[in-house]
């Protein structure tokens, strides 16, 4: 029995698992679906962030922290604009601020605009091209040449294979000017960062078939009098005897270069470039991840403390054994002081003078932004205050929350472990009978180089509060556990992930926690592939839901024979259970044609199947009404075809082919 339920167990009503009433509705889940896509500190020390709003069709708005504690945040973005980049399709890094001036990428036309905070007008900086063929991300202000330096993705010649460069955009003219290319020739670039003292720039670059976390290089290039890049030096990643993936270069106000890399140990740790010797020095050694795979631009895992970052303190976060830790690193002595803050998961950090802002969450706190104030010695957190929450009224449901249990489970490889977060059914009003085990929903995360983090998510609580068990699997290949664990998936996508998800479900059955006859699996993006592969090539599950890395697949799968053998669509005859598919019709990462093909093949085989297609949705649903509808239909689909119970909610189910009688 769930530990939270012990006190109320005697009073709880016995009802079948899956049929429990819960106030955590699909509408409540969609309302809590706001996300953060980038943080920065303005010239007055207040925070700026990009907030996505499902209730506005997924519009992304730049917001500024209230002037006084407890006040209301202020929208910066003018009506008719949305701050979102489509570079590499996943975007991120859509704005930068200097003083009270913001440069941002506008979603509808992908042009760069300049705006003064408080002014409701925005000036275009780049030309208008039909079809959003030029995209920008991860930009910074260049103090030496009065310009904006940014990643530019050019689709004009080939939309399927765009050219990526580092480019400069003039910000002083009133006219929109064609960007000037500064660095080119490689397949991908990220993190252009400019030294505020000397005329030079650091950046990360990498080549196909690698992703940036497989193998990358850190470069520094010096600006000529005209602002061109010359005299380039490879700082890390150039040694053919070392496999490493440097990331997140940052300059201090004194012109010192810091970055993160995973050389030798296989864990991302913080390093410093010694310019005089052209050597790199590790500041602190720990088998933990101080960064994460760069699926989106604009990742910020550390920052410099002190006025104009003149102190020797770095505030940072790392991920180890399923938990995040925030702390302060003294880069002179190499000592690390852990900070006691309520977040168990930290994703982004930006710093100020004696304080920092952190994006994070915990098992009882939804994704939030907090301001953390430090003592004079910069070793202890003296104040922690929430600046923004993805769901401000979430605590009204606290008595229904299921807390995650971090668990290890054996894989098919003897002696090898993988990880997961297990959520038992919990509802203070209901309990299951002693002779029944709950149904289980297994979630496979995307990426596939992503990570489940065990934080408060109403999308999980929607299930557990109705009597479902839920497990988020970190299969081999997930991030957060070092390079060796991540590389279990190389050449084995569709094998290791599938085996681990099945092993996790089997482990929960064998330990008596769930019903072996009611195991379901769900996933989106790369997790959707894993879900379909589980259903096609294994007999564990009874139903499933499936909701810039072209060469990445080559590394993960391998040769043509493996492609064929691991593609579920080639083995439709092996599907043996119901499937429901949800697809955005503007998705450029997973083509709608794939969902239609799978749907038709399964329908032709005579299995129960349904396909829901959404106009105006891309990769990952952003509109509140579609988030709500997806969750409701998934629940009632599983209840009708696997759970064999009636859901408490008044949901009108969609028609399921090969299950519902055709209407007369």
Automatic annotation (TrEMBL):
InterPro entries: AB_hydrolase_fold, Peptidase_S9_cat, Xaa-Pro_dipeptidyl-ppase/CocE. One of its GO terms (molecular function) is serine-type peptidase activity. Transmembrane segments: none annotated. Gene3D superfamilies: alpha/beta hydrolase. One of its GO terms (biological process) is proteolysis. Residues 459-643 form the Peptidase S9 prolyl oligopeptidase catalytic domain. It comes from the Eukaryota. PANTHER family: OS06G0215400 PROTEIN (PTHR43056:SF11), PEPTIDASE S9 PROLYL OLIGOPEPTIDASE (PTHR43056). This is Peptidase S9 prolyl oligopeptidase catalytic domain-containing protein. The lineage of its organism: Eukaryota, Viridiplantae, Streptophyta, Embryophyta, Tracheophyta.
């Amino acid at each position: 029995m769930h530990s939270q339920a012990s006190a109320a167990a005697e009073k709880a009503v016995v009802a079948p698992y899956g049929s429990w009433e819960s106030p955590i509705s699909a509408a409540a889940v969609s309302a809590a679906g706001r996300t953060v896509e980038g943080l920065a500190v303005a010239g007055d020390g207040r925070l700026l962030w990009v907030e996505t709003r499902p209730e506005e069709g997924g519009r992304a708005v730049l917001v500024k922290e209230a002037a006084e504690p407890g006040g209301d945040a202020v929208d910066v973005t003018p009506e008719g604009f949305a701050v979102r980049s489509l570079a590499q399709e996943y975007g991120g890094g859509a704005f930068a601020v200097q003083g009270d001036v913001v440069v941002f990428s506008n979603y509808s036309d992908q042009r760069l605009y300049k705006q003064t905070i408080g002014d409701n007008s925005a000036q275009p900086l780049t030309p208008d091209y039909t079809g959003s063929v030029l995209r920008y991300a991860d930009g910074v202000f260049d103090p030496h040449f009065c310009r904006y330096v940014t990643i530019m993705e050019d689709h004009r010649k080939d939309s399927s294979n765009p050219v990526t460069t580092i480019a400069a955009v003039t910000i002083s003219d009133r006219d929109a000017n064609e960007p000037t290319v500064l660095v080119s020739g490689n397949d991908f670039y990220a993190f252009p960062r400019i030294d505020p003292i000397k005329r030079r720039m650091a950046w990360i670059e990498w080549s196909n078939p690698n992703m940036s976390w497989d193998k990358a290089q850190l470069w520094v290039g010096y600006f000529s009098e005209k602002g061109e890049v010359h005299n380039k030096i490879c700082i890390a990643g150039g040694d053919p005897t070392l496999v490493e993936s440097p990331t997140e270069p940052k300059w201090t106000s004194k012109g010192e270069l810091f970055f993160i890399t995973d050389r030798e140990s296989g864990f991302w740790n913080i390093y410093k470039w010694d310019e005089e010797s052209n050597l790199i020095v590790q500041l602190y050694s720990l088998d933990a991840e101080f960064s994460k795979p760069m699926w989106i631009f604009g990742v910020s895992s550390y920052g410099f403390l002190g006025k104009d970052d003149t102190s020797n303190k770095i505030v940072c976060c790392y991920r180890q054994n399923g938990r995040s830790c925030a702390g302060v690193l003294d880069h002179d002595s190499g000592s690390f002081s852990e900070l006691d803050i309520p977040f168990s998961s930290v994703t982004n950090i930006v710093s100020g003078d004696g304080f920092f802002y952190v994006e994070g969450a915990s098992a009882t706190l939804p994704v939030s932004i907090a301001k953390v104030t430090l003592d004079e010695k910069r070793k202890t957190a003296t104040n922690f205050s929430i600046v923004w929450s993805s769901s401000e009224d979430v605590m009204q449901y606290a008595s229904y929350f299921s807390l995650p249990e971090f668990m290890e489970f054996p894989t098919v490889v003897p002696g090898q472990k993988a990880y997961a977060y297990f959520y038992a059914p919990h509802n203070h009003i209901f309990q299951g009978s002693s002779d029944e085990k709950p149904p289980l929903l297994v979630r496979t995360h995307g990426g596939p180089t992503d990570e489940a983090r065990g934080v408060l998510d109403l999308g999980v609580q929607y299930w557990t509060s109705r009597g479902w068990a839920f497990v988020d699997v970190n299969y081999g290949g997930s991030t957060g556990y070092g390079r060796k664990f991540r590389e279990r998936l190389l050449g084995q996508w569709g094998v290791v992930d599938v085996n681990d998800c099945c092993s996790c479900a089997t482990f929960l059955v064998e330990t008596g926690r769930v019903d072996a006859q009611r195991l379901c699996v769900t996933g989106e993006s790369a997790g959707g592939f894993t879900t379909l592969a589980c259903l096609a090539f294994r007999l564990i599950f009874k139903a499933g839901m499936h909701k810039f890395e072209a060469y990445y697949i080559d590394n993960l799968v391998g040769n043509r024979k493996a492609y064929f053998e691991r593609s579920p669509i080639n083995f439709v005859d092996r599907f043996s259970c119901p499937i429901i598919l949800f697809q955005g019709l503007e998705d450029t990462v997973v083509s709608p044609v794939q969902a239609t093909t799978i749907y038709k093949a399964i329908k032709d085989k005579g299995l129960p199947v349904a396909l829901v297609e959404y106009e105006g949705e891309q990769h990952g649903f952003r509109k509140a009404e579609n988030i709500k509808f997806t969750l409701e239909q998934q629940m009632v689909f599983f209840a009708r075809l696997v759970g064999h119970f009636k859901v408490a909610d008044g949901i009108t189910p969609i028609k399921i082919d090969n299950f519902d009688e055709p209407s007369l």
